[in-house]
Design a protein that fits this description.
Strand content of chain A: under 5%
Radius of gyration of chain B: 24 Å
Strand order of the largest sheet of chain A: 1-2
Strand content of chain B: 25-35%
Structural class of chain B: alpha/beta
Order of helices and strands of chain A: HHHHEEHHHHHH
Number of strands of chain B: 21
Largest sheet of chain B: 6 strands, mixed
Largest interface: A-B, 45 and 60 residues
Shape of chain A: flat
Number of strands of chain A: 2
Helix content of chain B: 25-40%
Largest sheet of chain A: 2 strands, antiparallel
Oligomer: heterodimer
Radius of gyration of chain A: 24 Å
Number of helices of chain A: 10
Helix content of chain A: over 70%
Chain lengths: 253, 485
């Protein structure tokens, strides 16, 4: 039982449920403290219970931080009158403390949401997630294996995309001068890509049917995805963080 | 559940399939694709279904494992009896464990990442108890000698290995009948031969009935003992000849003239830090037809893309006349960017409108100039692509795997097409795995292995050097005869 494996080994469906519940709960709080405390908590849990690539994590956080900052200043400048004491003014613009708190809350919410989403994405293998959804939440096998095939096709479609782009380069498509010309030229790739995708999808469907796949719910699993005691411990940990950040947030404002 | 056990080949014992007066039509078609088909297949037989492209071979195969008529709403008359029971009386998926199928395209018959997960998917479909799954997976991997691949990602395997994994998944179901839909068409000659040998050994051990669809019998040697030919009109006739009748290509006299039209010198290609091509040098002459051959993944397409200017060279230079060589990829439709065949030919900014009319006539495109390039036949697509290349007055034409998956008529047409272009003075370089085709057409052969050009060989000599060919996953052409004098 290694501590930094815990989040990776957690049942994906339960983890997903925790993420959804956390997001829905956080949406009700308009103070800046709740999402901020929650964010710090999530990072701490991830530091202790996972072994993720933090460099990549930081990189992935950049767009969210920019979005959060965007929220901050647009809400300060353009939000409806909220009352409260004026803490800062410049020319005609007056910023009240309540307005500032709300803006801060919104941007921290963006950061909190993205941190828990990244936690899920960084510690979950897509195959396990789909298998777990099928076994814990009775997701239809038709849908589950449909997603799996789509997932397997991603590299194949990418390869096809490269082949078509190479061929198009020969026709002088794709090396136009301006980026918007090139972007507009991309529409030409749509038909060949779709044609190939439909062909491959049909073949895959045949191959699956030929292996006796009917889409009926299955009774036996080679690797059952189980719900273990540790999953409940982690769930309790997340819920404690959620509740305490909610209470603390309210108390601090 | 029938256990895997060794048994001798029992021929003419019990009947596994019986088709009587089967006529089948797709709902969107007016004419039936199969008409009045009757035959029986007995346990342990090895039957091959042959016929030209689009003749209904694969349709016939899909009728045998119940994929049709269910999956396509096709209209079926006559009766198909599988193991003594009418096909319509089976539940969905019920018969698929007894009649397993391996398909043509190695890239689109898996839905899970690793070999083990794919096998588990198969067993879960059959509701095999979990305790038994492990045993059956180990057994099937052991039988097929693929144990070392158990945890490998399927997408990282070669085409030949993917076909073996697909076969192993079929065997895992402990079937009585194995259906194969052109399983060799994406493999290089040596890999194909190895696959056939491997299958032969397994069939002898387990006594399955094998039914395969195949348009080229060369690689199978004497594997089959009966042949069903799908002929025009969708009729099926029995044939006793199960060995490949050599395709007779017209004999060609070289049109090569000692005048270099294209030269690539010490060309290397690096992509993402990996060298895909090392110092390749190629020289092509006026009217020359050359073949470029080598194992899958040896860098043949990379070389093509480098010398026609798609991929940047990391080293070396190219000496060409006005324009770089024209390139027709394995799927010619990848080149298409317009909605009409004629627009396609005229698309290039460097197109010379003067020669378009003549070019379209010579490539027999004048009848279909108004058609949508995606809606025409494969041969027409290739001719359109060639026209789109030649309209820029290119002096070299590169064809990437034009022979793959083509039937005899298409190969003969292709042979004629290439030959005529060479006679018009074009230098043509062709990538192909089809050694019979190569032997019938090439003046020169270039062999490539692991990104290194082994050398340029005179076509007449290279076919005798079995060792050299084997090193490049190739086999000498068999039976390839030439027609005429």
């Amino acid at each position: 039982m290694v501590l930094n494996e815990q989040l990776h080994e957690m049942n994906p469906a339960i983890k997903f449920l925790v993420v959804v519940v956390s997001m829905l709960t956080l949406a009700w709080f308009f103070n800046p403290w709740t999402p901020a405390i929650f964010f710090v908590g999530i990072v701490l849990i991830q530091l202790v219970c996972s072994r993720i690539n933090w460099k990549l994590w930081l990189l992935m956080m950049i767009p969210f931080v920019i979005t959060a900052f965007g929220y901050l200043w647009t809400t300060i400048l353009f939000a409806a009158e909220a009352g409260g004491t004026v803490i800062w003014s410049w020319k005609h613009i007056e910023v009240t403390d309540e307005q500032f708190a709300r803006a801060l809350s919104l941007s921290f919410r963006v950061i909190a949401f993205s941190s828990i989403s990244l936690l899920f994405a960084f510690t979950t293998r897509p195959v396990n997630f789909v298998m777990s959804l099928m076994q814990q939440f009775r997701l239809s096998p038709k849908l589950a294996y449909g997603i799996m095939v789509g997932y397997q096709f991603l590299p194949v479609v990418k390869e096809e995309f490269v082949q078509i782009r190479h061929a198009h380069r020969l026709r002088g498509v794709g090396d136009e001068k301006w980026w918007w010309q090139r972007l507009f030229g991309m529409r030409r790739m749509l038909i060949p890509l779709l044609a190939a995708a439909v062909r491959k999808a049909e073949r895959a469907a045949f191959a699956m049917e030929a292996r006796a796949f009917t889409g009926e719910p299955r009774t036996e699993f080679f690797k059952p995805v189980t719900v273990r005691f540790n999953d409940w411990v982690l769930t309790a940990l997340f819920l404690t963080l959620l509740i305490s950040s909610s209470i603390l947030g309210v108390l601090l404002t | 559940m029938i256990k895997l056990q060794e048994k001798p080949i029992p021929i003419n014992t019990s009947m596994v399939m019986e088709l009587s007066n089967v006529t089948f039509r797709f709902p969107e078609d007016d004419e039936p694709i199969l008409q009045d088909v009757s035959f029986t297949i007995h346990q342990g037989e090895r039957v091959v279904i042959t016929g030209p492209s689009g003749s209904g071979k694969s349709t016939l195969l899909y009728l045998m494992n119940r994929l049709y008529p269910e999956s396509c709403d096709g209209i079926l008359s006559g009766s198909i009896t599988l193991f003594g029971k009418n096909q319509a009386d089976y539940l969905p998926g019920e018969v698929n464990a007894r009649i397993a199928t391996v398909f043509q395209d190695p890239d689109s018959q898996f839905c899970m990442p690793t070999v083990e997960e794919e096998m588990a998917f198969t067993l879960e479909n059959l509701n095999v108890p979990r305790a038994e799954m492990e045993k059956r997976i180990v057994e099937a991997l052991d039988t097929t000698r693929l144990t070392h691949l158990r945890h490998t990602l399927i997408q990282t395997l070669s085409g030949g290995m993917k076909q073996r994994v697909a076969t192993a998944c079929a065997i895992l179901m402990e079937p009585e009948v194995l259906l194969l839909d052109e399983p060799l068409s994406h493999l290089d000659p040596l890999t194909a031969q190895e696959y056939v040998g491997w299958l032969d050994e397994l069939q002898k051990k387990y006594g399955w009935t094998v039914v395969a669809v195949e348009h080229r019998l060369d690689a199978w040697k004497d594997f089959f003992n009966r042949r069903l030919k799908v002929i025009s009109g969708g009729f099926v006739e029995q044939s006793d000849s199960v060995v490949a009748a050599p395709i007779l290509f017209n004999k060609r006299n070289t049109s090569m003239v000692e005048e270099t039209v294209f030269e690539a010198l010490d060309v290397s290609v690096e992509l993402k830090g990996k060298t895909l091509l090392h110092n390749a040098s190629i020289k092509l002459r006026h009217g020359e037809i050359a073949v470029l051959a080598g194992p899958n993944g040896s860098g043949k397409s990379t070389l093509f893309k480098a010398i026609c200017g798609i991929l940047p060279l990391s080293q070396g230079r190219i000496i060409s006349r006005q324009t770089l060589p024209g390139y027709v990829p394995q799927s010619p439709e990848h080149l298409f960017v317009t909605q009409r065949v004629e627009d396609e030919v005229l698309f290039s900014k460097r197109a010379e409108p003067r020669i378009v009319g003549d070019l379209m006539k010579r490539l027999r495109l004048d009848d279909i100039h108004d058609a949508h390039p995606f809606a025409i036949s494969h041969g027409q697509k290739r001719r359109t692509a060639i026209a789109a290349m030649l309209v820029e007055k290119r002096s070299v034409l590169l064809l990437d795997e034009p022979t793959s998956g083509q039937d005899e008529a298409a190969l003969n047409e292709l042979h004629q097409l290439i030959r005529t272009r060479a006679e018009e003075g074009l230098a043509v370089l062709v990538i192909t795995h089809d050694m019979e085709f190569a032997a019938s057409i090439a003046d020169t052969v270039f062999l490539l292995k692991e990104g290194l050009l082994t050398g340029e060989f005179n076509a007449a000599d290279v076919w005798k050097d079995e060792k050299l060919l084997r090193e490049h996953s190739l086999l000498p052409p068999i039976g390839g005869g030439l027609r005429g004098t």
